[in-house]
Amino acid sequence: MGRMRTRSARQEAPRGDGDARDARASELALAGEGRPRRCARSGSSPLGLVLALGLLAGLFWPQRGLAQEPIVDCTTPRRAVLTFLGNLPPNADRPSDAIRCFDWEGAGIPAGDRVDLAVRLKSVLDLEGWWVKVDEMPDIPEPEGIERVLLADPLEEVFFVRIDGEWKVAAEGIRAIPRIHAEHVNEAVEHFVEALPAGLRAKPFLDVAWWQLLAFLLTILASLAARLLVAAFVAKQGGRLIRSQGERADASIVAKAAAPIGTLAASGLAWYLLPMLRFSALFNSIGNVAIRVLAASAGVMLAYRLVDLTSDVFARRAESTDTKLDDQIIPLIRKTVKVFVVGLGIIFVLQNMDIDVGSLIAGASLGGLAFTLAARDTVANLFGSVSIFADQPFQVGDWVVIDGNEGVVIEVGMRSTRIRTFYDSVISVPNSKVANCSVDNYGLRKYRRCSITLGLTYDTSPDQMQAFCEGIRAILRANESVRQDNFEVHFRNFSASSLEVMLYFFFEAESWSEELRNRHNVFLEILRLARALGVSFAFPTQTLHIDSVAQPAPLSVRPELSREQLEAKVRAFGPGGELARPEGRQLTADGFAPSAIEALGSDAEG
Questions:
Q1: What predicted TM-score, i.e. pTM, was given to this entire model?
Q2: Which terminus, N or C, of the chain has the lesser number of Cβ atoms within 10 Å?
Q3: What is the tens place of the pLDDT at every residue in 168-197?
Q4: Residue 503 pLDDT level (bands cut at 50, 70, 90)
Q5: CA–CA gap between residue 11 and residue 239 (Å, rounded)
Q6: Domain total in the chain
Q7: CA-CA distance, 524 to 591, in Å (whole number)?
Q8: Would 486 be classed as within a structural domain?
Q9: Which domain holds residue 498?
Q10: Does residue 510 sit in the same domain as residue 400?
Q11: Does some domain include residue 387?
């Protein structure tokens, strides 16, 4: 047996025999729990489309569980329910047979009121979308251990009991029908429908009247209008509220966060109006499930968008702070919270679809060990990210070399660290490898080293060599970008083709471009010093001696300066000297330097 047009009944004992059961539509509690639960859904899905598809499916859903011909039989609980529901519209129109399985005498109900009460009970089941699962009801006269069988889960007051060998609705349930009907049926709507013209109350197909179709379309339009208005209002007021707190946020993110709230409002309006349309139990049941899934998804999407909005606000705060740690943590927290929200959201939506989430979680736990083994690299990367944030070997924006990969850190995620190389590609290094390898952080340097060897020709005199070394020291002392407490300038070696002068000092620079500019200025000063002292830079040469007669030719001899002249030249290149140019010597106003220099790199890359 299948389901009746009303929702499933629940007996207070083991279930009877039956064929394969269909998925439950929804379990709503009336006594002790109030109205059925309405939960949430995504702000971006069209409410009208989802609601229309869900409700129109109810119109064409096959009617299963009903006999080909209505029966009049109260010998078993299942047959008693078939007698009640199968003889009332839309299945059949035999009210005198439908009231057969009721204890009217015990309830003291006059014969003229019995059909009306049965119809009222059926209307409550239809309006609330409560199905009766016929296949779960016993189909034997005396089921063992069963004294009564509920008609529907929320209607604990209406149940079947065995009276004189037949199963009938108990007298106390019959007497409760007027009160139950008043609690669930809007009398104003009933009077309005009765006052409609006969043409609108006509039912052209599937037991649906013209006024119901028109009201259904109006319900969809009203819900869509409510969604747009509420979303626009919340977006405007939300942005104003954020600005009143002295914060800033992206307008598009605020609008996206407001859209799910509009969907929640539309779902609430549709939930309120749907029972007034007086569709069948199957129609309303599918509509309730569609609205609940829509609203549940909107709640999940709202939480998801609020994570984006909150992250955007805190990211703008982080931009104004000196530390870069918060710039790293906020993207990681945003991704973690989003994963958590999506996981809980899936469970939330499945619950509103009446899926047994507990059994799914239990089944997932059985495969937990296999999943852990398969995801061991992911877990290692996750702990690697925790280690990075704990030790802080680098921050976003630092110039680093990790496992041979050189570049600027642009993001530290849950799984990997992303590095922008100096040839503009992006390298993703797993965090587990970052935590276990050496990290060379150029971004933590306060000073940048310069170490070179200058070669002078062998015809340089001792006084010139001494003047050259002292002159370089004077140049370094005159340059404010050079570290003044640690530099070395010495005549170090006699090489094959030159007299070598070691030059070792440090720059204080914020970027590689600034380092290059300062090095350029120092080297330019050294070149000017060499010309002023009359010394020449050497390059690899060979001397060839030829024993032959040649015409004598005058040799160019550089003038040799006195010690006083050499000392004057050296002092002229020192701090405040007339020849000192520590800021560099340019032929044009700005040297054609780029307007904004933020480049980083190594000497090997130019």
A1: 0.48
A2: C
A3: 999 999 999 998 888 877 767 766 777 778
A4: very high
A5: 53
A6: 3
A7: 14
A8: yes
A9: 446-541+559-572
A10: no
A11: yes
